[in-house]
Design brief:
The chain is built from 13 helices and 8 strands. By secondary structure, it is of the alpha/beta class.
C-alpha cells in the first residue's frame, strides 16, 4: 500500500468508510465460512473444530483491517472500570535508566497498570509470588485492562501466582512510543515492584507476543547491568515476538510455513514493528540492535526461562531458535512447551478462538515450572 493510500485510510472519512466496508464484508462472508468449515478437511487444520477454524479466520480479518486503518489505542493512565485495581507509577531515579534507555526525545514518564484479581497489598511476611506481565498486540494495540486481558490474567493468577500486574506500557503506534519507550516503562514498573515487595526474587516476568519481546528486553537489561536491579524468579514467554527487524516485511508472515494455520497477518506485524524502530535507531543508538532483534544476540542470565509456543503458529520457528541460542550461552536454563495444534498466543485469545483448553493446559505447565523452581512449594 503506497503512502497516499495509507494516509487516506488512516484518517477520516477514509478510515470510517473502510471500517464500514470491513464490517459489511465480514457479515457477508460469515455464512459462507460456516458452510465451508463444516467439512473438517477444509479447515486450516483437520483437528480444529468449526469454531476454531471460523474464529481464526475472523481474528485474521480483524488484525488485517486494524492495520489498514491503523486503529489507535490511546494511552490512558486514569482508572476506568478497574477503579482501585489500576495503579500509576512515577518514573524511578535517573540512575536506573542507563545506556540504551537514554534518548534525546523518548524520556521515562509516569506509567500504570492493572492488578489482578485484587489490588496488591505489600506484606513483609508474605511469600506470595507476583507476576509482572506485558500484554501482546504487536506494540500497536492493547492495554492490559480487563477488556482485553481478563482471560490471560485469570489463567495466570489461577495457575501460576496469586497476584499479577499488567502494565499499560507506551505503544509504538502512539506519538513518542517508539523504542525505548516501552522498555523504559517496563524498567519503571519492575523497579517499583522491587521496592514494594520485600523479596524481589518472588517476582515473575511474563509476556505474550510483543509483550514477550518486551519481557526479554527487560531481562536483558537486568542481566547486562549487574547490580542495578535484582534478578526475577523466572521469565515466562507466551508466543513471543522475537525478530522485530524481520517483522517489518509483511512477506515474512505470508511466506511462513504456518501462515495458513495462524491468524497473524503481515500488514499488522509490519505496522507495529515499523513504528517500533527503524534502521536509524539501530545505527545511531549503540547497543539497540540486540533489544530490537534478540535472535543472534543471546545473553547470559541466571533467571530460568519458560517458553510456550503454538505448533501451528507463525512465530513457532523463531521461538525455538531463540531458545536454542539462549541454551548455548553458559547453559542458560530454558524450557520450551509446545501446544501442537495451537495458533498464536492462546493465553490471550484462547477464550475467543476456541482454544480455552489449550490455554489452560499451558498455564498449568507454567505453574508447574515455577513451583519446581521453588522446590515444589505452593503459593
Amino acid at each position: 500500500m503506497d503512502t497516499s493510500s495509507k494516509s487516506l485510510l488512516t484518517s477520516h472519512p477514509g478510515k470510517a468508510l473502510w471500517t464500514t466496508f470491513a464490517i459489511l464484508y465480514t457479515l457477508i462472508k460469515l455464512p459462507f465460512l460456516l458452510i465451508y468449515y463444516t467439512f473438517p478437511s477444509l479447515r486450516p487444520h483437520p483437528k480444529w473444530t468449526l469454531r476454531q477454524a471460523l474464529m481464526n479466520n475472523l481474528m485474521h480479518s480483524f488484525l488485517y483491517h486494524s492495520a489498514v486503518v491503523q486503529v489507535s489505542t490511546p494511552l490512558r493512565l486514569a482508572p476506568g472500570s478497574e477503579k482501585d485495581h489500576f495503579m500509576t507509577i512515577p518514573p524511578s531515579s535517573d540512575d536506573i535508566y542507563l545506556n540504551v534507555l537514554c534518548d534525546p526525545i523518548i524520556k521515562p514518564t509516569t506509567t500504570g497498570g492493572t492488578w489482578y484479581p485484587t489490588p496488591y497489598k505489600p506484606n513483609p511476611n508474605s511469600n506470595d509470588l507476583v507476576i509482572l506481565h506485558f500484554h501482546g498486540g504487536g506494540y500497536a494495540i492493547g492495554e492490559g485492562r480487563p477488556g482485553d486481558a481478563a482471560f490471560a490474567a485469570h489463567l495466570l493468577t489461577t495457575h501460576v501466582a496469586p497476584h499479577a500486574f499488567f502494565l499499560s506500557y507506551r505503544l509504538a503506534s502512539n506519538p513518542d512510543g517508539r523504542f525505548p519507550a516501552a522498555l523504559q516503562d517496563a524498567v519503571t514498573a519492575y523497579s517499583h515492584l522491587c521496592r514494594t515487595i520485600a523479596d524481589p526474587s518472588r517476582i515473575i516476568l511474563s509476556g505474550d507476543s510483543a509483550g514477550g519481546h518486551l519481557a526479554i528486553s527487560l531481562l536483558r537489561y537486568i542481566a547486562t547491568n549487574p547490580g542495578l536491579l535484582p534478578d526475577p524468579l523466572a521469565l515466562l514467554l507466551w508466543s513471543p515476538a522475537i525478530d522485530l527487524v524481520a517483522a517489518r516485511d509483511p512477506a515474512r508472515v505470508t511466506r511462513n510455513r504456518n501462515y495458513g494455520t495462524d491468524y497473524l497477518v503481515g500488514n499488522f506485524s509490519s505496522w507495529g514493528a515499523t513504528a517500533f524502530s527503524d534502521d536509524a535507531v539501530i545505527t545511531t543508538k549503540p547497543g539497540a540492535e540486540p533489544y530490537i532483534t534478540p535472535l543472534g544476540h543471546a545473553f547470559s542470565t541466571d533467571t530460568p526461562i519458560w517458553i510456550c509456543l503454538g505448533g501451528l503458529e507463525v512465530l513457532h520457528d523463531e521461538g525455538v531458535r531463540f531458545a536454542e541460542e539462549m541454551r548455548k550461552v553458559f547453559g542458560n536454563p530454558v524450557e520450551v512447551f509446545t501446544e501442537p495444534y495451537a495458533h498464536h498466543d492462546v493465553l490471550f485469545v484462547g477464550n475467543i478462538t476456541g482454544f480455552r483448553d489449550e490455554a489452560e493446559r499451558a498455564a498449568k505447565r507454567a505453574g508447574t515450572f515455577v513451583r519446581n523452581l521453588r522446590g515444589g512449594k505452593e503459593d
